[in-house]
């Protein structure tokens, strides 16, 4: 098999234009802007209208990434969508996105590992390219968490938003992929899950829907504890594998789940705040989309320079976690939209 390096050739994102603010949530629930801001760092999140499936916001992000890479959809060899809010139980949302991009026949599959989806996807896509299976892979993190949130539950309703981010990963002489560390532990899946709708709980009933058993349930304190521990562990392992010292990380791009979790991980890495990418105030937790949206915004702001070392790190349902160390190639410009057609 051919061995090659890999690089990100293009990046883009899209968030639907509807916005749910803390003030809106104050009207819906027993909560306050002050509580949400101090406990999470969130101010607002974007929410897609009900007629817009995940594949539509994924498609806009994908088109932006394709434009950013200066290629056409027909130049792609594979489409991967990381999501836990797919259009259908099956087929994979990646198949739908491929068809909407006008490239039926190109292999496509989903990765379902919640908020760790982009980290897993970046590892899988890079491996497929580095081993010569594909030359160019489109990786999208896309979620409409708003569809599976119980807006009567103040402990989860405030956290999540919708959005999509995408990268084009292609073979390259130089290798941007430095290392990866992935993990999962399904011993206590109910710490963060949707109870019904799968095969474990039997057919979904009218009562399930009335009692919101088809919506996200989370043990927030447990997930918080786990998140801080695993982000630090995964970071240490990925950096050691990459032979990179924490002080040589130029940018920390973490999953945006809670500002306090990000701050704890950044403190451990001794990263000054200006090198930690945070947009949680504007988007909330967009699960698999949060890291590529944050990357896309950082590129669009012209902050990334050739040779910068990025540490992507995330965690989520599973429970699952991961970190990827990546050396940036400086010739990429991001394309993005906040009010494209989808949303
Ligand atoms: N407004 C006001 N009060 C609230 C709210 C709210 N929105 N939510 C909870 N509270 C109350 C609780 O009822 C509790 O009250 P009590 O003391 O009277 O019982 C009090 O606030 C403290 O509750 P905690 O759960 O201890 O609050 P905490 O400081 O832990 O913050 C939070 C809760 C924000 C959910 C935090 O635990 C957290 O961020 N956890 C991790 C979430 C996360 O990262 N999820 C990842 C999902 S990734 C994926 O795969 C989808």
Characterize the structure shown.
With 343 residues, this protein is an alpha/beta fold. Helix content is 32%, strand content 24%. It has 11 helices and 14 strands. The longest helix has 23 residues, at 220-242. The mean pLDDT is 95. Residues 31, 35-36, 39-40, 114-115, 154-155, 158, 192, 220-221, 223-224, 227, 257-258, 261, 285, 287, 316-317 line the site of acetyl coenzyme *A (ACO).
Q: Main traits of this protein?
A:
alpha/beta, six-stranded mixed β-sheet, four-stranded mixed β-sheet
Number of strands: 14
- The helix fraction, in percent, is 25-40%
CATH class division: Alpha Beta
CATH topology: Peroxisomal Thiolase, Chain A, domain 1
Q: What's the shape?
A: globular
- Total helical elements: 11
Beta-sheet strand percentage? 15-25%
Just name the CATH architecture.
Answer: 3-Layer(aba) Sandwich
Low-confidence stretches: none
Secondary structure blueprint with pairings:
Elements: E1 5-14, E2 19-21, H1 22-28, H2 33-40, E3 44-46, H3 54-69, E4 78-82, H4 93-100, E5 108-111, H5 117-130, E6 136-144, H6 154-157, E7 162-172, E8 177-184, E9 192-194, H7 206-210, E10 216-218, H8 220-242, E11 251-254, H9 259-269, H10 280-283, H11 290-300, E12 309-316, E13 320-327, E14 335-337
Parallel strand pairs: 1-14, 4-5, 4-6, 11-12
Antiparallel strand pairs: 1-7, 2-3, 6-7, 8-13, 9-10, 12-13
The structure holds acetyl coenzyme *A (ACO).
Acetyl coenzyme *A binds at residues 31, 35-36, 39-40, 114-115, 154-155, 158, 192, 220-221, 223-224, 227, 257-258, 261, 285, 287, 316-317.
């Amino acid at each position: 098999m051919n061995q090659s390096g890999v690089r990100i050739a293009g990046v883009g994102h899209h968030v639907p234009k509807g916005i749910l603010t803390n003030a809106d949530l104050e009207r819906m629930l027993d909560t306050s802007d002050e509580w949400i801001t101090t406990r999470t760092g969130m101010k607002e999140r974007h929410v897609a209208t009900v007629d817009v499936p995940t594949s539509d916001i994924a498609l806009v992000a994908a088109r932006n990434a394709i434009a950013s890479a200066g290629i056409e959809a027909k130049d792609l060899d594979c489409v991967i969508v990381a999501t836990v809010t797919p259009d259908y139980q099956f087929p994979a949302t990646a198949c739908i996105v491929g068809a909407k991009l006008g490239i039926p026949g190109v292999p496509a599959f989903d990765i379902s590992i919640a908020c760790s989806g982009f980290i897993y996807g970046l590892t899988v896509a890079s491996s497929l390219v580095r081993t010569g299976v594909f030359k160019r892979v489109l990786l999208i993190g896309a979620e409409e968490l708003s569809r599976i949130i119980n807006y009567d539950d103040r402990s989860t309703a405030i956290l999540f938003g919708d959005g999509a981010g995408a990268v084009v990963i292609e073979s390259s002489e130089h290798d941007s992929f430095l290392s990866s560390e992935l993990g999962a532990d399904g011993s206590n899946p109910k710490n963060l899950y949707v109870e019904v709708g799968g095969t474990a709980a039997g057919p979904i009933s009218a009562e399930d829907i009335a009692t919101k058993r088809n919506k996200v349930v989370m043990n927030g304190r447990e997930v918080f504890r786990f998140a801080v521990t695993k982000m630090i562990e995964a970071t240490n392992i990925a950096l050691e594998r990459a032979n990179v010292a924490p002080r040589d990380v130029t940018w920390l791009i973490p999953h945006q789940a809670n500002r306090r979790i990000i701050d704890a991980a950044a403190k451990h890495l001794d990263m000054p705040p200006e090198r930690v990418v945070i947009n949680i105030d504007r988007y909330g937790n967009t699960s698999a989309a949060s890291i590529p949206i944050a990357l896309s915004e950082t590129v669009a702001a012209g902050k990334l320079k050739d040779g910068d070392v990025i540490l992507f790190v995330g965690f989520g349902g599973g429970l699952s976690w991961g970190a990827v160390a990546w050396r940036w190639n400086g010739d990429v410009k991001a394309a993005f939209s906040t009010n494209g057609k989808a949303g």
